[in-house]
Amino acid sequence: MLKARRCVREMREYHSPLSGPTINLRLDMNENTTGCSPRVLAKLKSLDAKTLALYPRREPGEKLVADFLSVAQEQVFLTNGADEGIDLLCRAYLNPGSEIVVVTPAFAMYEVFAQTEDARVIRVPTGPEFSFPEQKLLDAISLQTRIVVICNPNNPTGLAVPRASIMKVIEAAPEAAILLDEAYFDFYGQTMMDQIGKLPNLFVARTFSKAYGLAGLRLGVMAGDKEQISVLRRMASPFNINALAMECLTEALADREFVNAYVSQVCTGREWLQRELEQLGFKCWPSQANFILCRFGEPKKAILESLRARGIALRDRPDCEGCVRITIGKPAEMERVIVELKQVLSTIPAAQQVTR
């Protein structure tokens, strides 16, 4: 009987918690609830049949992105969402039995792709209040370490990692690929992109799914040393980026006014939502991303189910005890969350609402 590899057979299938038809406010996937730039939409509407009939060329887009990031074109590789870049990195550098070190809680796909390569996942839990576990991470690096993953700001906590800590990890593992996932960079503003070309084992991943509102087009970027990027390039399909994403890239990058306005909206909404949640007695962590991690505590399940019944989906984070992750939406959407949450809380016994 035909069988897949053992490591694949034993993997737990990952299911994205896509909302059902009764949900009209999705705040569980960190998507841009405003949508993409009007200039991107106009570009989509202008495309003709020939555009879809031809295989897309990735190189012009990589030149655009390289110039935008102030790196060389050979140091940039466009990917089918940031996920593909992570997958390629695991395929390129992990052997069966080798190790990938991940700070947890973390984005689930790091482990999924690592398990596909039959690698050992070394989980390093965050410190008190989800602080970055610098010394524990350094201690976890061994001769078997092939990849170290740092998400900055972290998903799902929203907390940022100090630059000095990142540099220590890079220096401590010169023979390992250091993946710095900067998916939420636009809301934080600090980056290690300036070290591309200087540190040969550093990879920086970015995505157009968040601040640019292009999650549906699946477009990401992996930047790194040109020799290492060439490894990923020859592993990937030559037509991994779809034509619509390639055609829209120019307008997405050019409309800085749209991106800046959205980022400003998120930062303002993030502060407002945290204040409102804290006034209700909930614990929140200071986020640098387009979401907030909030501890609902014992009544979490009842709150989530009641909000879903009202058409609102938040993300349960069982890996963060009693916590949920809430995407920052438009002001009216955030106001709706608080109004509905207050109504839900009025139906829950007061004794269960001690969350701090």
- Helix-strand string: HEHHHEHEHEHEHEEEHHHEEHEEH
Our count of helices gives 13
- How large a portion of the residues is in β-strands, by DSSP E? 15-25%
CATH architecture identity of the largest domain:
3-Layer(aba) Sandwich
- The average pLDDT is 95
Notes on the protein architecture:
There is one protein chain. By secondary structure, this protein is of the alpha/beta class. The chain folds into 2 domains: 6-30 and 257-353, Aspartate Aminotransferase, domain 1, CATH 3.90.1150.10; 38-254, Type I PLP-dependent aspartate aminotransferase-like (Major domain) (Aspartate Aminotransferase, domain 2). The chain contains 13 helices and 12 strands. It has helices spanning 6-9, 38-46, 49-53, 59-69, 81-93, 109-116, 134-140, 163-172, 226-235, 243-254, 256-279, 300-309, 331-345; strands spanning 25-27, 76-79, 99-104, 120-125, 145-151, 177-181, 202-207, 220-224, 283-284, 291-295, 312-317, 323-327. The strands form 2 sheets. A 7-stranded mixed β-sheet has the order 2-8-7-6-5-3-4, with helices on both faces. A hairpin with a 6-residue loop joins strand 9 and strand 10 (291-295). It starts with 5 loop residues before the first helix and ends in an 11-residue tail after the last helix.
